[in-house]
């Protein structure tokens, strides 16, 4: 993209990137964040707490569009706007512009401009597979591994964000970018190196802290055909959204309801088909839905 090499345009991929961005942040500055996923929204929340003016630009029509339902997206759009974030969805970035080699403007797809002091680009990652390719391993959207973290060379294992693995919760192969996946799949890889046959089959889970809200997610919601709400995300700050496919619980998003999240992980693992009315009733403990 034009201007991506200007000083002040930063990618966010590592702790070093975080430190470099933090060093540049000063109260009253304007920061433009490209991407309305977890990374972009977490940076936006942190920047507002530091007293920066914040604009978030998301090319899709809502934030968190790849990972959650519209009703949950609307909740996070609301809390960010209430915190003073200028949130622009459904529009992409055309170019970064600046003077003397430093970014000072962002040009959007409709030709409008945003004056800015700093840009953070958080639009997803590409897995580092160069070493695997050089070693002759099978690669396709990550390093291909089996359920025990073995690559196409049985003497080599791979785990974490770079590993494309079979996952029963995804209904096929997937590549997960999360701390949970990196830690638990690494344990399986270590067991494989020690000669054990341990299968990676942990339910995926994720979290995101934004302002005073903690989003905790269990399972993978892709392909859901029904959603049940416990609480009202349009007016409350604590709620859970449960995703069903053909009557079975496949995922849950919980905001400010850690017990819902804890039991949702167990319910998703068990593959239960809950009563939607009970699922929606906050007076019915989720633990009562677990199989005996």
Short structural description:
The protein folds into three domains: 9-121, 3-Layer(bba) Sandwich (FAD/NAD(P)-binding domain), CATH 3.50.50; 130-193, FAD/NAD(P)-binding domain (3-Layer(bba) Sandwich), CATH 3.50.50; 205-289, Enolase-like, domain 1 (2-Layer Sandwich).
Q: Termini, distance in Å?
A: 56 Å
Provide the CATH top-level class of the largest domain: Alpha Beta
Class based on secondary structure composition and strand pairing: alpha/beta
- Taking pLDDT < 50 over at least 5 consecutive residues as the criterion, the unreliable ranges are none
Number of domains: 3
Residue share in helix: 25-40%
Mean pLDDT across the residues is 94
How is the largest sheet built, in terms of strand order? Answer: 1-8-2-3-4
Molecular shape: globular
H/E element string? EHEHEHEEEEEHEEEHEEEEEHH
What is the name of the CATH superfamily of the largest domain? FAD/NAD(P)-binding domain
CATH topology of the largest domain: FAD/NAD(P)-binding domain
Beta strands, count: 16
Spatial extent as radius of gyration: 21 Å
Q: What is the CATH architecture descriptor of the largest domain?
A: 3-Layer(bba) Sandwich
């Amino acid at each position: 993209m034009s201007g991506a090499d200007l000083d002040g345009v930063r990618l966010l991929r590592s702790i070093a990137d975080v430190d470099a961005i933090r060093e540049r942040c000063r109260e009253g500055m304007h920061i433009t964040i490209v991407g309305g996923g977890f990374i972009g929204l977490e940076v936006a929340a942190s920047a507002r707490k530091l007293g920066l003016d914040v604009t978030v630009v998301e090319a899709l029509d809502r934030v968190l569009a790849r990972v959650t339902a519209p009703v949950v997206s609307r909740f996070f759009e609301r809390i960010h706007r209430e915190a003073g974030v200028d949130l622009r969805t459904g529009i992409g970035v055309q170019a970064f512009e600046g003077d003397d080699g430093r970014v000072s403007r962002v040009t959007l797809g409709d030709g409008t401009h945003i004056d800015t002091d700093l840009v953070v680009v958080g639009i997803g990652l590409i897995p580092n597979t160069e070493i695997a390719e050089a070693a002759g391993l099978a690669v396709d959207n990550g390093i291909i591994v089996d359920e025990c973290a073995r690559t196409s060379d049985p003497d080599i294992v791979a785990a974490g964000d770079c590993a494309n693995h079979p996952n029963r919760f995804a209904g096929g192969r997937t590549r997960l970018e999360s701390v949970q996946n990196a830690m638990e799949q690494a344990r399986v890889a270590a067991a494989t190196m020690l000669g054990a046959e341990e299968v990676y089959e942990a339910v995926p889970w994720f979290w995101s802290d934004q302002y005073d809200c903690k989003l905790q997610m269990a399972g993978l919601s892709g392909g859901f055909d029904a959603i049940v709400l416990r609480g009202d995300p349009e007016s409350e700050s604590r709620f859970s959204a449960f995703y069903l496919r053909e009557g079975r619980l496949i995922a849950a998003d919980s905001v400010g309801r850690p017990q819902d999240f804890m039991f949702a992980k167990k319910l998703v693992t068990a593959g239960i088909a809950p009563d939607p009315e009970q699922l929606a009733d906050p007076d019915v403990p989720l633990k009562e839905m677990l199989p005996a």
